[in-house]
């Protein structure tokens, strides 16, 4: 995942504490933040980079209990997805990314088994 994040062109920060706080606010496991630096940058630059590189656009948003904005960006074909968390000051950090996004609202009767 880090190779994908770095290829977006977003500045990586080694502030594990910041990443941990963002992940906790997003409801993710804080231990992950301490293992990898977060890819962060100004919100407009993060959105533009993900759009340019992966053709992703905003598909869902939520406010977290920590007062941050959580956004899910997906490619139209579902080939890639990224979750970012943005602070009120405009700093956005990638907290997760992957492939094969499935929008359950548009796929009645489809389920994933683990």
What proportion strand? 25-35%
- The N- to C-terminal Cα distance equals 20 Å
H/I helix tally: 4
Q: What percent of the residues sit in helical stretches (DSSP H or I)?
A: 25-40%
Strand order of the largest sheet: 1-2-6-5-4-3
Largest sheet: 6 strands, antiparallel
Q: Give Rg in angstroms.
A: 14 Å
**In terms of structural class, how would the helical and strand content be classed?**
alpha+beta
- Low-pLDDT parts are 11-35
- Would you count the extended β strands for me? 6
> What is the residue-averaged pLDDT?
74
List the domain count as a whole number.
1
SSE string, helices as H and strands as E = HEHHEHEEEE
Secondary-structure topology with pairs:
Blueprint: H1 2-7, E1 12-13, H2 16-26, H3 30-35, E2 38-42, H4 43-54, E3 56-63, E4 69-75, E5 80-86, E6 91-99
């Amino acid at each position: 995942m880090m190779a994908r994040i770095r290829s977006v062109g977003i500045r990586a920060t080694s502030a594990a504490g910041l990443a941990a706080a963002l992940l906790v606010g997003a409801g993710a496991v804080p231990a992950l933040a301490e293992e990898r630096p977060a890819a962060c940058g100004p919100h407009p630059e993060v959105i533009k980079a993900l759009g340019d590189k992966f053709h992703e656009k905003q598909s869902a948003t939520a406010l977290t209990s920590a007062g941050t904005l959580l956004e899910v960006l997906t490619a139209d074909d579902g080939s890639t997805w990224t979750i970012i968390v943005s602070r009120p000051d405009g700093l956005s950090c990638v907290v997760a990314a992957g492939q094969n996004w499935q929008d359950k609202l548009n796929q009645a009767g489809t389920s994933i088994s683990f």
